[in-house]
Amino acid sequence: MVASTAPFGSRPAHRGTGAPGRPEPRHAVRLVRTPGTASPPPVAAPSAVPRPPRMPLRVRALRGRWLGWGLIGGGVVLVPWIGMLASTLPSTKQVSNWSAAWVGLDVMLAAGLLGTGVLFTRRDARHGLLAAATGALLLADAWFDVMTATPGAERTVALALAAGLEVPLAVLCGVLAARAVPSVPSRPRGGAEGLGGGTERLSGMSTPR
Q1: What is the domain count for the chain?
Q2: Which of 16, 138, 157, 199 could be cross-linked to 24 through a Cys-Cys bond (beta carbons 3.0 to 4.6 Å apart)?
Q3: d(CA 107, CA 70)
Q4: Coil, strand or helix: which one is 207?
């Protein structure tokens, strides 16, 4: 197919695209099929990708509440378990894999500090997740260092490390984790029915759309 832009008058009027006897506009574009050329194949319209159905708002809010109540129930169940351990466990006990346990904890601490530092220098918001986990490990390390140390010089060194290094680092990681959490708008009164102004309940929280 080729396009012809010849002026009116060079071709008979009845060969145009208009009605017979009606003059064509000057310099009208006419498609002329040349011998031996095939018409272009039709272009198929792009098919729309179906979106997965969204979970209803009430269902998502209900799932969020059940998850929260499940975590609360787990904490409540631990209370009698802690009492039983306090009354039945011996104050001293010989354990195996003692060195492997402490080396593994220090490896996790090193990985957490390195990962938090790398993500923080790259302004990656995911540093908050590693900072929270690393802070919890630092507090656990300080607790077990002090509680498992023998009275005397070893206990003094453990207390000094906990107060001067581990606990301050844990506080710093907690601050980094808290600052990495995005601000959540206040939930309007009325629950899920009163949502308006561009907020949406998701798993029991209000997040901007």
Answers
A1: 1
A2: 16
A3: 31
A4: strand
Please count the CA atoms within 13 angstroms of the CA of 18 that sit on its side-chain side: 12
Give long-range contacts, CB 8 A cutoff, 24+ apart: 203-207.
Answer: 203/60, 203/61, 203/63, 203/64, 203/67, 204/61, 204/64, 204/65, 204/67, 204/68, 205/64
In a domain, 91, yes or no: no
Residue range 56-71: mean pLDDT, rounded: 78
Residue 130 falls inside a structural domain: yes
The answer to the question of residue 203 being in a domain is no
Least Cα distance to 30 among 73, 1, 71, 55 occurs for 1
Give the Cβ contact number of residue 39 at 10 Å.
Answer: 7
Least confident of 64-68, 108-112, 116-120, 147-151: 64-68
Please tell me the predicted confidence (pLDDT) of residue 191: 47
